[in-house]
Structure formats: structure tokens, C-alpha cells
Amino acid sequence: MPPEMSSPPPGASQAEAPPRSPLPPSCDVLVVGAGPSGSACAQWLARAGVDVVLIDQHDFPRDKVCGDGLIPDSHAALQRLGVYAEVAAVAQRVSHVACIGPRGGRVDVPGSLSVLPRRQLDDILCRAAVNAGARRFTPVRFEAPLRDGGRVVGARVRQGGDAVHDIRSTWLVLATGAVPKALLAAGMCERQQPTGVALRGYVKNDAMAGRITAMEIVWHQRLRPGYGWIFPCRDGVFNIGVGLAHSHRKLRDGRRVMQDVNLREVFAAFCDAYAPARELMAGGTLQGELKGAPLRCSLEGARYSEPGLLVTGEAAGSTYAFTGEGIGKAMETGLLAAEALVAGRRQQSGDAAVQSAYDASLRALKPRFDLYERANRVNEHPWLADLLIWRARRNPAIVRRMSGVLDETRNPGSLVTLRGLTKLFLPVR
Ligand SMILES: Cc1cc2nc3c(=O)[nH]c(=O)nc-3n(C[C@H](O)[C@H](O)[C@H](O)COP(=O)(O)OP(=O)(O)OC[C@H]3O[C@@H](n4cnc5c(N)ncnc54)[C@H](O)[C@@H]3O)c2cc1C
């Protein structure tokens, strides 16, 4: 057996699949996708007394390719959802993000952070939705929306590999993540190609457990336009990976094509260029395989709503460009979808009012996403990271600014705009 197949990924269990329950013919809200966004949405709706059905194409617990890093916005959403203590009890608590530049300079930015494999995190979130009253059915795959006139009135789904069923619902919520298949089937996809791509693996290396204690993010010429990371999980396990921003180039005719980059080669370059990554891999055991996945960022690439249908989470592009963080914003946007639906029910408002409330709530977040898009230039020009780190090491106020970006009290764009860079050379209070 090759070493990468020698043990299951962290959090894996051998539980037998429960017998399948018959699917209901109807519900108030059908939420498709039980990731952070869908589970948050379903829990909030169920708490408000809405009859909600939550489906996912996979049985839970299931793996999700991710860096597993929880930053302050995730912690805030977990608090709102009442699962923060449960997550904190099993997550690896982390006190700093370490930003490491191409020349090896490093600055440790403090923050409220933790790392928990998505297999465990998503299971907690999904169970919380069920405990609040959502009816969960898995594995059930969304195939297409049902329409009556111009309005969406439910979905055609497939249970396991079996026959299709129709579930009628007053509203359908698509929280199907970065793979655009469901968006395409619903006619909501505006851009099929992802914004970025990333690859990660789990490696167990007990000897490194006390040595890598921060969430390390590494910029380097050989990782352009992207970065590498090492995030410590529990029990000597690390999530290690590489991400590539703007993985798909726009051609003159508007089409997008994948840049000529092989993520496995970028991963090898990361291990070659960054000594701790090299050491981690050389002395550790890979658990499971290296796996890649797309990212959809900057609240772009899909329509947010149409009558009877809301799109939320990464399906709506809710992941931050530059950092690739999206768990917190997936939950936030899921909650925004639920809030728009609950308010619409209370006020007995029509489709247009629900849509415009939801669309407006996402548009209100957009400027912040745009700043992350601008900050993406660090991934394209890693020397900017060198500059920032060099200055931050000499000026604690800059570290405080960076910490403010992490907990969202400051904008990331301000650090890498021309004005922001100029300010780096001015005395900072
Ligand atoms: C390699 C990598 C590293 C990352 N690292 C981080 C990180 O460290 N921190 C962070 O905050 N973010 C990170 N992200 C981003 C994060 O993974 C996403 O932002 C987040 O998962 C989005 O949540 P979601 O609920 O919208 O979608 P998902 O988590 O993708 O959930 C979507 C769900 O929908 C289900 N589904 C899809 N299609 C169908 C269908 N047709 N029928 C039924 N079910 C369906 C899927 O099975 C899945 O369970 C990373 C992403 C990648 C790829």
C-alpha cells in the first residue's frame, strides 16, 4: 500500500450508512448543499420555525478540500450559530498567522484563530441544523430546479443513484459551493471557470508538532501568483497546501482559460523553496492523497437570486480573493439568505422584496471583497510581502493594522495600495 493511502484523513470514521428515509414531497425551503453556507442557512430557518429540508450529494461526515483555517469571521459566525464551544473543544487553537516573505522574513500577526478539518467542522454545523429542526437527506443530488411559469417552485433530485424525485418548495436555496454544475443546471451561472484553484494534503509529523504552531502563509516567486500554507491541526497533523489566484486568464474574446500551471508542481516547488515544508513532508506521513479544488471569489460569477431561488456561499462567490478564506463568509451569506427569507415570511412580502433584500445584503459586502481582490497583487508580486514584513518587523503599529485586517476592523487593500505602501514609510501611530 503506498504511504499516502496508509491511513484515513483526520476525523475519518468507519460508521455504516443509515437506511435511507423517503424524501418528502414538499417543504417551505429546500436548501441544497450542507457545507457551512447551507447548514448555517438551514439552521437559521429551522430556528425561526420554517419547515426546511437540507440535502447534500454526500453522506456526512464527508471530506472537503480546504485549508481548514478558521479566522475571526468564522469564529463570529460559529458563535451566532451556537456551535463555537463544540468547535473549540475539538479544534487546534492558534494565536497567530505567520506571514513569510520570499526572502524568509516573517511577521506573526495575532488573531482569534483555529484549525479544524472540514470533515469534523461541517459535521458539527450540519448536525446543529438538524438539531434545530431541519430535515436532512443524504446522499441526495440536486439535478435541476422545478419551474412553474417563470418561478422556481422546488427541485428535481436524485437519491443515491436511484430514480429522480420532485420536491416542491416555496423557496430553493443553492449552497452548492465552488463546483458550478448546480449553478449551470439552475441557469444562475455567469462564469463557469473558477477564480482560483488550490491543492492540499494532510501530513502527520509528530516531531514538528511543537515547531509549527502558527498558521503559516508563505509567498515566494516560485509560487506566483499564489502562496503556500501550513496550518497545524491536532495530534501532530498538518494541513499543507498551495493556492493559485486568478488561475484562469481572460482572453480578448472574453473566454477564460486555465493558466499553464500544474498545482502538484507548485506544491513540489513550495516544499523545495520553504525549508519547514520540506522537513514536514520528508519526515512525515501523508494521510490520504493530495487533493485539489476550485475557488469562487469576490462575490462574482453567479446571479444571486431569481423568483423562488437564492444562491449563497461560495456558489455566489463568497470566498475572499488574496487569502482564499471563505468558511466564515459562506456562513455569513447563508445567514443573510435565511434572514431575507424569514423577513419575507413575517412581512408576507412577495418574491421581489425577498430578492431585493438578499441581493442588497450581498452588495453591501461587495466593497470589502473588492479590496481583497486588490490585495491579490501580493500574490502576483511577492516582493510586496517582503516589503510589508520588513516594515512590520520594525513597527508594531503595522502588525496591529495587519491584525485589524484579520479581524475585519481594517481593510486589506489599504496595506497594498500605492497610498498604503507610501504610508508604510511614514511614522505610524
Ligand atoms: C484548497 C482550499 C483551501 C481552502 N482553505 C480555506 C481556509 O483555510 N479557510 C477558509 O475559510 N476557507 C478556505 N477555503 C475556502 C472554503 O473551502 C470555501 O469558502 C467554503 O467551503 C465554502 O463553503 P460553502 O458552504 O459555500 O460550500 P462547500 O463547503 O463547498 O459546500 C457545498 C456543499 O454542496 C454540496 N453539493 C454540491 N453540489 C450539489 C448537488 N448538485 N446536490 C447536492 N449537494 C451538492 C457539496 O457536496 C458540499 O457539501 C479553501 C478552499 C480550497 C479549495
Automatic annotation (TrEMBL):
Pfam families: FAD_binding_3 (PF01494). It is an enzyme of class 1 (oxidoreductase). Residues 1-11 have a biased composition (Pro residues). Residues 27-178 form the FAD-binding domain. InterPro entries: FAD-bd, FAD/NAD-bd_sf, Geranylgeranyl_Rdtase_fam, Geranylgeranyl_reductase. Keywords: Oxidoreductase. This is NAD(P)/FAD-dependent oxidoreductase.
